[in-house]
Amino acid sequence: MPAVINKFIQIISGLLNKGHARSVRTKKNIVLSLGAKGLSIAISLLMVPLTLDYLDNARYGIWLTISSFVGWFSFFDVGLGHGLRNRFAEALAKGKFKLARIYVSTTYAILGIIMLFVGLLFAGVSTFVNWTSVFNAPAGMERDLGALVLMVFSFFCIQFVLDLVGVILSADQKPALNDLFRLISSAISLLIIYILTKTSGSSLLLFGLSVSGVGVVVFLLINLILFNTKYKRFAPAPGYVRFRYARNLLNLGVQFFLIQILWIIIYSTDNIIITQLYGPEAVGPYNIAFRYFGMATMLFNILTAPLWSAYTEAYVKKDFDWITGTIRKMKLAWVLLAFGCVLMLLISPYFYKLWIKDKMVIPFALSFWMCIYVMAITWGSIFVIFLNGIGKVRMQLYFAVFAGILNIPLCILFAKTFGMGSAGVIVATIICMSYGPLLAPLQYSRIMKGTAKGIWNK
């Protein structure tokens, strides 16, 4: 038996270490991410029934809506994170380590200033907002909701800056480490919530503190450790802050910023729209279905995550054969994923029954459209990741502006006017994100053939 295990390990090791050095890094990251994301999925699945035991359906819906609302403010990085990822990867590919540190220091400084200003402004405005009306919450929760929103937003602002270390890891083609750190944070939150179910009555404040506060503590420690060890040469420092380099970050970053607003509008408004149309209780089933099929999206993201910066490096070094070969492999992987999604759809009623028992009813139509959504977005991501990595995002930006304007009216049209309920919201989302599955493959093809002109090459 030990000999068989050793042989198996040797085979796996041989497969992982075979091929181009860039491919080897990618494969190792995929394997490590599979482990980290697999455990993250397990934690996410455990978190739902545990949360429903601790919070009732209404409070659970309120929490999901608050999370979506706070997520809107992630656009305040003005695309700096994505700009840093591409510029840092380019600097590493060219061996310009001092320039890489300047980009890191400048990004931390600018984003820190922005989030400090946003946090203080939000704290001032928050006192005048009736949060029970915003979240359609039961009467009598105004005081707790005000404190909860302010606390969650404050933690969000801090972690928003701390999360830049994950951008650096991804740019250095080590996204699996970022996945591992997020797994640690989620595991600690799960443990604390489990303890709360045994020792405390239902409290949105304690729940919010457990979920939001833990991430801040974990990523603060990660920043301190990495910038004093492996990434010491890139550690952010006042002496390396060069605001004139902000233009290099923002030229590309602003385009990512505007695209990011689109996705925030499309994804984060779903819960708000459902809450306003059908009440907070309807948010739960939508998010249960989203999380279930989101496992397939997460699995595919594990394959694509290491490729963004790998494409940046390959394009800078004009290694086009590696790019086309990698895209071809990703297409084959998507075919397998599509079969998996259909299987997930067929067994979804039984899985929901096992997972959440009779606490919620998930309409089959909602599961069907979630399945279509996942297949569409993962197909598009094969090409969008490449285009993001090489900075050819102008067409995506223009489509984002159009889709961002169209999203909310479409959601209301399909959900309310056509009577599709919450399933109509995801149908509208599929239409609004159609750039990925329809236009991105054409743009990729033209760029690789050298025939891309005008907007197709910007």
Which properties best describe this structure?
single chain; 458 residues; mainly alpha; 80% helix; 0% strand
Q: Helicity, in percent? A: over 70%
Task: Look at the helices and sheets and give the structural class.
Answer: mainly alpha
In total, the number of domains comes to 1
Question: What portion of residues belong to β-strands?
Answer: under 5%
Number of strand elements: 0
Choose one word for the global shape: globular
Give the uncertain stretches in residue-range form. Answer: none
User: Radius of gyration over alpha carbons?
Assistant: 22 Å
Number of helices: 18
Mean pLDDT over the residues:
85
How far is the N terminus from the C terminus?
A: 56 Å
Which quaternary structure do these chains form?
single chain
Query: What pattern of helices and strands is seen along the backbone?
Result: HHHHHHHHHHHHHHHHHH
Q: Give a quick account of the main beta sheet: strands, pairing sense, barrel closure.
A: none
